[in-house]
Records
---
Amino acid sequence: MRKMFVSMTAIALIGVLAACNQNDESDEDKKETVTPVETVKATTGDLVVEKSLYGRTAPVSTMPVTLQNPGEITELEVENGEMVEEDDLIAIIKTARGNQNIYASKDGEIANLNAEEGAMVSNSEPLAVIADFDTMKLNFTLAAGTLDLFEKEDTFTALIDDKEYDAEITSIGSMPDDTGLFPVEATIENKDDAVLAGMVAVMKVPEKRVKDTVIVPTAAIVDESGETFIYVIEDEKAIKKEVSIKESQSNETAIEGEVNDGAQVVTNGQLTLTDESKVNVVKEGE
């Protein structure tokens, strides 16, 4: 009898514990997970799709310093990087026909000087070059289908060594070069002498414009199982909105869908969300 009582007591206790566990699990189910997210406002406007073109910098003009006859440099009055004015004496060359004075033919900067006093020099190659570095030329080569993006005197933004410059189109080639590409030239002002010959220039050229569209950060777009969507914050919940992409750039994307101007679009934390997830906006951008 006593054993039966103990067994019944144990069974009752197990039942009570099981009921408690079920209640605890039920309570936990009732607690919603709150996901921290970052948002940015959707905007309405025109999205300009830009094309990046890569080229090299060069002096806008160069003038070779040539010799009439070969000989020995007896006096050298300049060095690389030195500024000269027209008719400045550059060097005196001792030749078989007597001394030859070499003068600057224009204002500019001495470059490509590879000789020194006492050296023998030839008249088959320039002694040096006088270059204009105040205005620099940007050289690009483009496919025929890209030429319609340009007109002479158009101005675009060029990025050189992380600095922006206004680049004016000065020449558009009408014939391709040996590679089948067309040469295009632009010029920039090099007032601070920061641009050197041979540097890489990246010019941003508008290629397409999507007018009067909803624009969201590209980071907000989620592609999953063939579905494209974003999350919009409404009443502290993330609401899933299916969208279609009209045009996309690295930072911004033009979309079509039920997204209003000024909507708070999730840009960080969206990969862990589901429709109507409860969220906490920890950072709200414009």
Note: The chain is about 10% helix and 55% strand.
---
Amino acid sequence: MTAPYPHPTQAVILAGGQGSRLRPYTDDRPKPMVEIPGTGTPIIGHQLAWLAAEGVTDAVVSCGHLAEVLQDWLSQAQLPLRVTTVVETEPLGRGGGLKYAAASLPRPDEPWYATNGDIWTRFSLREMADFHHERGADATLALARPRIPWGAVETDEFGHVLDFIESPPSPYLINAGVYVFSAAFTGLLPARGDHERTTFPRLARERRLAGFPLPHGAYWRAIDTAKDLTEAAKELGSQQV
């Protein structure tokens, strides 16, 4: 009988972005420290609670913009898991930053999760890890189908307007900013540069990159602008996420 797949117990959170489109909220704090109104917790607080609920015991937070603000909050908060912070002394790019942070994971020979620091979501990371393992992938990315911010118009073949659809789901899946990586993936990352332009395309060609569609009904939103904050507050007001 095959032993069950051990789910990852370590994770990296990429929290070093400037968050320029979220100003003035990010004038005095990094983007992951922004609170969605009504939730009572910053984005990173939600992420750490989610990771801990999914069995993660150790997280490495990659800091950048206003790193000291995030580090101060982490040092004072009652955290549900062990957290280490790293700060890039020079810009390494997304792939290089991921590699730099992964070097501080406590168990380098085990798989790990990663998430962008501006994502508010909740779904089963264990199911995603099983999906990753079943496909023998080196990397698996969560896939979301966001709503288009404009209303759509449905027509028939003669050009007659049939219906107006407010903010319909996109016909395309997008990278949701949540990942499962094998232990070997760390060595495939560039020391500098963007892994989405180097490592991911290579793995895709070799069929070693998998995409996990978010389960139906799972909440997901990237917090990029003030409008995202407002809409997330409305959405989360009707559910506990």
Note: Residues 22 and 96 are 24 Å apart (CA to CA).
---
Amino acid sequence: MLPWKRVLRPLAALLLTAAVAVVPAATAQAESAPSHGWNDYSCKPSAAHPRPVVLVHGTFGNSVDNWLALAPYLEVRGYCVFSLDYGQLPGVPLFNGLGPIDKSAGQLQVFVDKVLAATGAAKADLVGHSQGGMMPRYYLKFLGGAAKVNALVGIAPDNHGTTLSGLTNLLPYFPGAEDLLKATTPGLADQIAGSDFLTKLNAGGDTVAGVHYTVIATKYDEVATPYRSQFLSGPDVDNVLLQDLCGLDLSEHVAIGLFDRIAFHEVANALDPAHAKATTCASAFS
């Protein structure tokens, strides 16, 4: 029998291949995103929507494909919308969010500063899917982001890590597997429940003062599991279960971020709570 290290060495490549089944084929990077309202650095926030919205993609995602539905949804509602690529690995094109998450948070820090400088806004709002809803919390907590961010909206964020429906519990039975994962795709290793990264991130509380937090989860999530581990604790947190808004919504981890307009409606409510409208099944058509 081959040693486990030899068996597990192609793990990262297999994970990247599997991602093709759930992430649309990438067509461009941030520079080629639509230029009217989405990554349009001449966009100036309106009085109605005074803060630019920065979209933060998930693991295996990128600045375009993750937001082909949500970016236009927000843009037509009058928001200045921007998206970034982060967590790139050398030699791995198109699929991002795989690098060390603390380094990815540093990339977000630089991008938010760029957006604020271009728009003239004092603060931004962040909307992220999966890792993109969790990683910004490192920026807020350790990199000064709380002074530059009004709200963080996480769509299916793995705030307390994931068990991948229990699969990560098997890692101790395969000697060297976790070390291999850390070496090849550290962004994945950081998201395992109980990782050193998540222990640091959540020590002393889930939130920081001055930022409004919203978590939008689905009970059918098969990636960020168990789904209730996505929820945050804190004084300015709104935890939302999609099926409490529409029991007919069957979206799982990918769909909730890529094209679920019921979830998008709740994102819009979180960005503009003063004008929030009840989210129902009918919101899919609004």
Note: Residues 52 and 93 are 28 Å apart (CA to CA).
